[in-house]
Specification:
Largest sheet: 7 strands, mixed
Bound molecules: pyridoxal-5'-phosphate
Radius of gyration: 21 Å
Helix content: 25-40%
Strand order of the largest sheet: 2-8-7-6-5-3-4
Strand content: 15-25%
Order of helices and strands: HEHHEHEHEHEHEHEEHHHEEHEEEH
Length: about 350
């Protein structure tokens, strides 16, 4: 038998993350990755074009200007912020810095999959807390925690369910988590949430050593192509993450674009308004057609088709109409599809296609 290089035992059986597909042809409308249908701030493009002459120079290490802009905008200590190549990078840095063999992480059953993929890659055991009607269940999460639990990952709002935990519940959860366990509050969709009882977690991070809030520029800021996110935690946690991040982890274009986007509140407000209007419209229209929509506070919604076959047929019907949606069987939701809130015309197409699908199914 041929002898070949063997990866670490944690890597051998590790599944690769399969992102939402883009579809074929220029006509396809991508509603599979929760991107902003309005694009990005119009102020960014010219600045990035002018930066082409700086291609040969490394970016600033540690994103100091962007961290200063984030600190000013949110009233934070700049030493407690780290910038990253997408917030996914922060999840990996956390796993690298905090997990050893024998440790475990806890996440919810239908929680974001990058948490357990990264954690398994560093040899940790994964513990899933069952959800109650598509929502994180505090008691179930606490039940999974033991002395070896280093990290609890909570997406709030969660992808792919679109549900959220009120801030009171998050605080109760934190109060009952051991002080040596890190609570990660992933606020990738925080800007979209309109509920009064929601908060992304800044106050909780400010007051405690064992909480970290992650945010991204990939969703409402419309900068997914550049890969940029950030996190806020204690100085100690940020220091540990800085030890395991690559130098120059955030490219110069991403740093510049993120700073411009932070200063264009009009674009963010417009994106929130568009999403809220269209999310309500889609939920009502599809419910009217007889579909079961999981209530969402984010920029996507989950449809329960009650069988995997029907979900797959609906996926095919939508794809034939040029609408690329997301299968979520890998999240334990085989009977469902996740669809991003798109432009008004894309959303009209979704309604028309699912109307026809209902009539012919
Ligand atoms: C999209 C998403 C992110 C953001 O990932 P980036 O690496 O910042 O693009 C993080 N968490 C959840 C739950 C998401 O859906």
């Amino acid at each position: 038998m041929a002898v070949t290089p063997v990866p670490s035992p944690h890597i051998e059986d590790l599944p690769q993350y399969i992102p939402g597909t883009s579809g074929e042809g220029e006509e396809a409308i991508k509603l599979s990755s929760n991107e902003n249908p309005l694009g990005a701030s119009p102020n960014i493009a010219t600045e990035l074009a002018s930066m082409a002459e700086k291609l040969a120079t490394y970016p600033e290490d540690g994103s100091p200007q962007l961290r200063a802009a984030l600190a000013a905008k949110y009233g934070l200590d700049i030493e407690r912020i780290i910038c990253s190549a997408g917030s996914d990078e922060v999840f990996r840095l956390l796993c690298h810095a905090y997990l050893a063999i024998g440790d475990n992480i806890v996440q919810t059953r239908h929680g974001f999959s990058m948490y357990h993929i990264f954690a398994r890659g560093f040899g940790a055991e994964i513990r899933f807390a069952e959800e109650t009607v598509y929502s994180a269940d505090i008691e179930a999460i606490l039940d999974q925690i033991d002395d070896q639990t280093k990290i609890v990952f909570l997406a709030n709002p969660n992808n792919p369910t679109g549900s959220y935990l009120p801030y009171e519940a998050v605080k109760q959860l934190h109060a009952r988590i051991p002080e040596n366990t890190l609570l990660v509050l992933d606020g990738a969709y925080a800007e979209y949430v309109q509920a009064n009882d929601y908060a992304a977690g800044i106050e909780l991070v400010s007051a405690h050593e064992n909480v970290i809030m992650t945010r991204t520029f990939s969703k409402i800021h419309g900068l997914a192509a550049l890969r940029i996110g950030w996190a806020y935690a204690s100085r100690q946690v940020i220091g540990n993450l800085n030890k395991v991040r690559s130098p120059f982890n955030v490219n110069a274009f991403a740093q510049a674009a993120a700073m411009i986007s932070l200063s264009d509140q009009n674009f963010i407000d417009e994106s929130v308004r568009h999403n809220q209007k269209e999310l309500v419209r889609m939920t009502e229209a599809l419910t009217q057609l007889g579909y079961d929509i999981v209530p969402s506070v984010a920029n996507f919604y989950l449809i329960d088709f009650h069988s995997e076959k029907t979900a797959n047929n609906a996926f095919d019907a939508l794809a034939t109409a040029g609408l690329i949606t997301r299968k979520v069987a890998s999240y334990g939701l085989g009977n469902h599809l996740r669809i991003t809130v798109g432009t008004e015309s894309a959303n009209d197409k979704v309604i028309a296609t699912l109307k026809k699908f209902k009539e012919t199914a």
